Amino acid sequence: MFRKSCLILLLSTFYFLLSASSVHAQFGKNNVRYGQLDKVYPSFRFDIRHNLDTEDPRQMEYLRQVVDNLERARDWMGGPAVFNHNIEKRIPVFFYKTHTDMESSNLVGGFLPEGVGAFVESERRRMVLKADFSKPLGRAIGVHELVHEFQFDIYNPNLLQRNVIPRLPNGWYEGCAEFIAGLYDPHTRDDIRRREQRMYASNPRLLPTWLGLNAGSANPYTMWSMIPEFLEEKFSFGTEFCVEPLKNDVRLGEFVYDKVKGELGNPDVNSERFDQQHRHYWGTEKGYEVARINSSKPYDENDYFKGRTVTPYGHPYPMFSPILSADGREIAAFSIQDNGVALIRYLISQEGGYLSKEDREKIKDKNLLSQFSNSSLIKNLTPQLPPVPWEYIVVQGLETWPFNGFDAAWSHDGKKIAFFARINRDHALVIIDAETGKIIRKIEFEDPEFRLDQAFSPSFNADDCWIYFSAAKNIQRDIYAVSICDPHIGRMIQVTDDERFDTAPSVSSDGSKIVYVGSDDDFQHLFLYDVRRGEIEQLTFGSFNDSSPSWSDDGTTIVYTSEENGLVWKINTLDLATLTVKQWPELMGGAYTPMFARRTMDTVYYVTFRDDDQFQDQIYFNFEVFEAKLKKPVRQYTVAKKEAGSFVFNPNRDLFRINLDSNQLLNPKKPPEDWACGGGNIQVGVNTYYGMFGQSYFGCSNILETKHHRGLVALYGNFRLIDYSYVNQEKRTTWVWGIHQYQLPLYYQFYDAVHRYPRQNILNNTWMKELSLDLFTQYPLDKFNRWELFSKLGHRSYNVFGYDTADLDAGILDEADDVFTDQDVQLFKFMKNSNGSNLSFGAAYVRDTVLFSGNTWGPFHGNAFRAQVEFAPPLGEEFQGFTSVNVSARTYRHLGSSSLLAGRVEVMTSTRANGDFILLCGPDRLRGCEYGSIVGNQIGYVSGELRFPVPWTYVLGTPVRGFLFGDAAYTGFNDERFSVRKIKTYGFGFQYFIPLIGLPAQSVWNRENGKWNPTFYITLHW
């Protein structure tokens, strides 16, 4: 019996998956494919699929650089210096113009944080890259992913080996990839990896132990990569540490033990000796611990500056990209609020801060008091929850990689704030009322002439009618401007047109000049654009990076950050008249996005990264806004103008240049599909219970995962499940066609792991037989809205108690009214009338904006809606006609971070029986009544829930959540004399995970006849 139950559960799962694959009757968000990789460039050992215009010299050069970087790095990496290994296969590379294209690839599925710069998937070893980065960062990311290709080629563990019994920790793969890539092409910016390493290394108590690293409790890109660097510098085997464990069946701790003859011990057994030397190396030998002790603190007063925090008191969250109000009294910055990343506004506290008790009692205005007490009131200007009106706000360091510049701008009249947010395809400009947060305008850059990607760093011009910003067009990043005033709202102009990866524009107060950051080969420096003359002048030079410039009010001085002299971001000021640079003290956590206070050039507001921020009794890492009153620079010099061009020479990369094959470019070939097929579970046999049986499945997909063939065959006695479908997702519109034959007990669709069979006598003794040809297509309007169209040509028949329903009369059931209920009779008639063939056509509109959260174990906030109409014309005696309408809506409203209200409405109606019905009384609808005891094809259902965490409750370490619910429904069948049934239930329950096996479960009590009746389900909330 247990074997039979398991088989039924397995086959019912197969049926559910096949039914779900038809897509309609489902919610869900969309993968909007804005483009496709329709070209391929085969280099020596890579097949690079792309959608670049190789007739454009700049795009062709970018492709050449990608080929050159990967081929050169593969030569070096495969040689004796690193892996000493040759990858025999050609490596497929998917190279996308921008994040949006990469995100919409079928390898990703439509949603991917912008912080993911690239990846390699291990099954077919496809490398995915995007062109959103500066030249040195793009190279470093590509080399990092190439390390993964070697790792997978040498040792590619299966799912069990990697996640259940891993020989090599997951963090080791990323840390070693970062270390090896750094040997070839190190990051040139401090805020990419190096800052976090320095901060941890400067405080040995914070550096993760070997045990912590292996447990996955630290950032693998930064903390794990410090291990091979330490081993290389101290013992000359960091590279071996990242290679030999791949080639030999050896644990990392044992490998370390043997390489240094026990000097570090075996850290897998006892890591104390290893951890001590690791901490000593970074803290003492590299000098970070001493540097931390001796470095200036942002709250210091010394010979160089006087500092204080201007972060709101009691605000524990990081602050990014602060901007100053027109009157200089307030700051707006990006931080974390209940709705996630948000733009907040607050008054700057005044220096000094003490008020006598008498004075405090005189001041009644809390806003005024906050200026003195540093307990500023925070106003959230963007309280909306995504995805309406945006999917996320663009903030460097929170949502995206660090570029340069400020992520918001405050207008000169103080009335507007501008920032970028992800809306539809890409970043859109959002302008809000600075006082209320009301959205004034949203501008998406979709004009064919100015279809821009990855817009950053807005800056108002002098009259607040134009906003300058950085954006990419066909890979090349330049400075643009857009009009936000009548009569030219949305008008665009391109300000720069060069290959310098221009970012971070800042307009002077009189609007005559724009300072911005441009690439000078491998480094980023300041450039000045004269608006009137259209001339560009380079301001800074050298083998270091500059970032985030802004102006003094009088337009004579620029404040910015620079990595010059120490590779840590420091505040610099530049006098434009004399080209005098003043460098201010270095902070251990660096300085970011500085700006002058109003009407001064000796007071600067900026962000720094601290390891000693405090909230209540917690001391932790955080980004905070500080003020510095500048006194005396630590260094001062005059810029020496010289020929542009500074890069890090790498003989493995720079001695030779790989050029593209012009013949391939002039005679492009259609990319091959490169199909890969798989299958399994092929069984054929016979036994005394089922007779002949067989089972198999297969699937084939092309290299881009845009075309799929899928099939399944399962035969057990009279049971028959044969299904084939073809899916095409090459373009924005998805097409699916399929053919299937089902012959199975009807209750397989409703089999429950706990309650097993529905309490329906007719349903449990009915077999369904169906043969159909299906066509389905969907067009996504955006990620959250879509249209669906479908058609089905099929024949369906039912067999009850071994008899064809077409040969039976319902009167037989009426005569046995002591055995069959009214609903049994209704269901029998429904099935009898559903016999026959249909040619149906349908359409549906679907909207889904539901956010999910681990705190609520499912939906957190948002709405889901689906409206579907299906029509089948009557075509002779065999083809029956009907019209059906299905509407389903759900809403979720969060109450804090862990509780929510949930509501649900469903309506289903049809002009006649067509085989579609809904089963009530179960974990999904109408809880508490006898499982599956109510059924109908005329349904109205409504449900409401309050879901909340239950404090101090755990089931073997797993928290418990509670809920209160109320359900109501009416149900019946069309064209029946029986009255409509109306049911109401209410009660409470608990959601938890069953210990050891980990299945989600609910214990529910509903009120019935004055009693509380318990029911148990294995399910999650809808």
Q: Regions with pLDDT < 50 over 5+ consecutive residues? A: 5-11, 13-24, 368-375, 686-692
Oligomer designation: single chain
> How does CATH name the architecture of the largest domain?
Beta Barrel
* Number of separate structural domains: 3
Structural class: alpha+beta
Q: Return the CATH class of the largest domain.
A: Mainly Beta
**Helicity level:** 10-25%
Distance between the first and last residues' Cα: 31 Å
Estimate the strand proportion.
35-45%
Here the CATH topology of the largest domain equals Porin
Radius of gyration: 33 Å
Give the CA-based shape.
Answer: globular
Family: Belongs to the TolB family.
Signal peptide: 1-25
Organism: Candidatus Yanofskybacteria bacterium RIFCSPHIGHO2_02_FULL_38_22b
InterPro entries: 6-blade_b-propeller_TolB-like, WD40
Describe the structure.
The longest helix has 22 residues, at 57-78. The two termini are 31 Å apart. Mean pLDDT is 89; it is low at 5-11, 13-24, 368-375 and 686-692. The strands form ten sheets. The protein has an 18-stranded antiparallel beta sheet that branches. It has a five-stranded mixed beta sheet with strand order 1-2-3-5-4. Strands 11, 12, 13, 14 and 15 form a five-stranded antiparallel beta sheet that branches. It is 19% helix and 40% strand. The chain has three domains: 2-29 and 672-1017, Beta Barrel (Porin); 38-156 and 649-670, Glutaredoxin (3-Layer(aba) Sandwich), CATH 3.40.30; 305-638, 6 Propeller (Neuraminidase). The protein is globular. Helix 4 packs across helix 6. Keywords: Signal. Pfam families: PD40 (PF07676).
